[in-house]
Every structure is written in C-alpha cells, then in structure tokens.
Amino acid sequence: NFTAKFRIDVSDLKKGIEEANKQIKYANAEFKNAVAGMDDWSKSADGLSAKIKQQQSIIDAEKQKLELLKEQLARVQQAQKDGQKIVDELNDKYNEAVRLYGEGSEEAKKYAKQLDDAEKAQERNAKAAEDLALKVLNQDTNVKNASAQLGRYETALEELEKGENDAGEATEDMS
C-alpha cells in the first residue's frame, strides 16, 4: 500500500515544543514570584539581573522551539519528495494497467484509487509545509524579539551599575 508511506511522525518534535512552552511559562512564573510584593525591585541591579536570567531562559526555549519547527518542516519536505516519487510510480502503474487491461479494469481502478489517495496526501503535505514555513518565520521573529529584549535589560543594568559607580566615586570625592 503506497499511501501508508505518507505518514510523518513528528510526535517527538511536538513533545519538545510543549516542553519549551513549559520552560517559558516557568521562567515567567519564577520571575513574577520573585518580584511579588517588592516595590521597584525589578528596576534594581538585582531585579535586572533576575530579569536577564529569565529572558535568557525564554530565549533558550524559543530557540529550541525554532529548531524543532525547522526539523518538522524538513521532515514534511522530505515526505513531499518521497510522496512525489510514489505519485509518479502509481501514475506509471495506472497507465500500465490501463494499457494492459483497459480503463475500466479492476487493476486500473485499484491504481486510480491509490493515485488519488497519494495526490490528496501530497496536497496535505504541501499545506502542512506551507503552515510550518510560516510558523518557522514567526518563531524566528519571537527569538529575535526576545534577544532584543535581553539586550535592553543588559543595557539598563549596565547604565544602572555605571550610575551607582559614578555616585560612589562622587561620594568618595566629597570625603
């Protein structure tokens, strides 16, 4: 049965994406728990350091999701290539059955049905590949946005530490 070859197992990749989503939720919850009840702590050096750590966890999880989506896309694209070979093979077998037994023969009908099923599977794979390509682009954007946010936190921490150093030096000069 040629159509059985169209199945693509991405369950392992989906589990990995679920795990990455859990990591993101956990990092966010951990930070919210740390800042609960603390006024302006998130603007202090310790708070910004915690936010940087949280954001790095998010980036790592977002990158993991991106790689898993890319792997899914690669598997679907490979299935499309393999599927096209099957479609071509079935088309040849169908044409051969028509030539040998006639268009209305059981043999020709059997291959016509398999060919139709294979072509429908190819359409589903093409749609899945299109959807995954869009998910990959969106996930790449998520990684870039998370990285940019990390950069903003690191800059804020550097400015805060510089301000504290400048204030400390000014205090020493006054003594």
Q: First CA to last CA: what distance? A: 89 Å
Count of beta strands: 0
- Measured on Cα atoms, how large is the radius of gyration? 28 Å
Proportion of residues in helical segments: over 70%
Proportion of strand residues: under 5%
| Low-pLDDT regions | none
- Kindly name the structural category: mainly alpha
From the spread of the alpha carbons, the general shape counts as rod-shaped
For the sheet with most strands, the description reads: none
Tell me, rounded to a whole number, the average pLDDT. 87
Q: Which H/E pattern describes the elements?
A: HHH
* Tally of alpha and pi helices: 3
List the helices and strands and how they pair.
Blueprint: H1 11-35, H2 45-101, H3 106-174
Helix pairs in contact: 1-2, 2-3
Short recap of the structure:
The chain has helices at residues 11-35, 45-101, 106-174. It has 175 residues and is mostly helical. The N and C termini lie far apart (89 Å).
